[in-house]
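May I ask for an example protein's residues together with how it folds?

___
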Amino acid sequence: MKKLILTTYALLVSVSATLAQIPAGTKLRIYNPGFNHSINQLNRPADLYGQTKTWMGLGYGRFVKDNVARGWIIRPELGTSFDRSADETFWYPKLEIGYFNRRYLSITPDLYLFGEGKIGVSSQQSILPKGMRTSDSKIQNYTALAQANFGVTYFLKNGWALESSANLGNLSVNHSRQNDHTQSTTIQLNSSLYAQKFQVGFSKYIDYNPAKSVFTKETPYQPGQTFIGGNVSFLNTSYTYANLSNEYTSNAQSLNLGFSKGKFVTSTHARGFGFSALFNTSKYSSADTSFQNYQNFGLSANVFHEHYLALSPKFSVVAITSLNAYYSSVKTNTSTSRYNDHTLALSPDFSPAIQYQFSPRWSILARVGSFTVGSLGVTLRDYKVSGSDNDLSAALSFNPSYTIGNSGVSLRYFPGR
């Protein structure tokens, strides 16, 4: 795998060196909208809870030299949560302002990678329902932050581009105040790809319209050809968070095993189906002796389509779209309760990948994260404590995001070649 990564990197560097750059003076406009909504239905029809979050990121920048852009971004956000049993709605308006510095690397004439440094400040206020408002109920949060991000830009037409960027690391200082009576300050540092998501949006590059990539190399695959794949992905993460009064730590390990079978309908298009199993454990603890332990088992089935773009006789870029149905069982044991969550869900996703055909019958496919637009699911919570009622909840979310943690490697066998 190490040899594959080094070879792929060398190929990308050699290709990018011959491509045009985004010239100095190009103006950059960023539009990054988002929406997320979920509803929880408990054991009685009246027990209905929900959360909604809507935001719009707007950026203005300029290329100060070739492939280097700097500018400002502002992101207003409005979050709400409601409790229908008590007829209460909470509001959480937030405003974030930041300054960014981007450096681009061209992969093809219309595909770029970029690294981004960002500093900013934000302010959020909690607005309680009218009947709960008092002179002490106003809660405000102020945050200063520094971020390191990584992203991808794909040019569409007339300077418009589809963009996604992932947060690789954060340093933040948060100050919370409830009027003048209660105040606290926390400092948080994390640098992990786990659960960090690409935010997806559009950008306009004014006075720049690159040529579209043209690849004439044929793929090494023929219509009717079949393949069998097996994939393995492993994720191990650790996290520490501390404030002035306590320290929290968490550790998680997950293993995903999968099988797939596909068939080429053209030399650049394959379709098929797959199955996978997920095993996950995580532990969370704090200095004040509270703890949470999780054990997760999941099964999934999917149908997929793959579209191939040959970079060389052995290397291909693959775009994978799939529809996934899955079941998961999560056992939770905390310092105060024990319960099992059983979930059925349906989710479409898209994964970019690179395939290396190292022999006529064998190839390696490396997925680089997955892009999802949302999911539809139902969860039954089975409490393991006498006297507690089970909860049934349903959730529908629309939150375009790219998760780098959903990466993995598949070994494929092509019979009959």
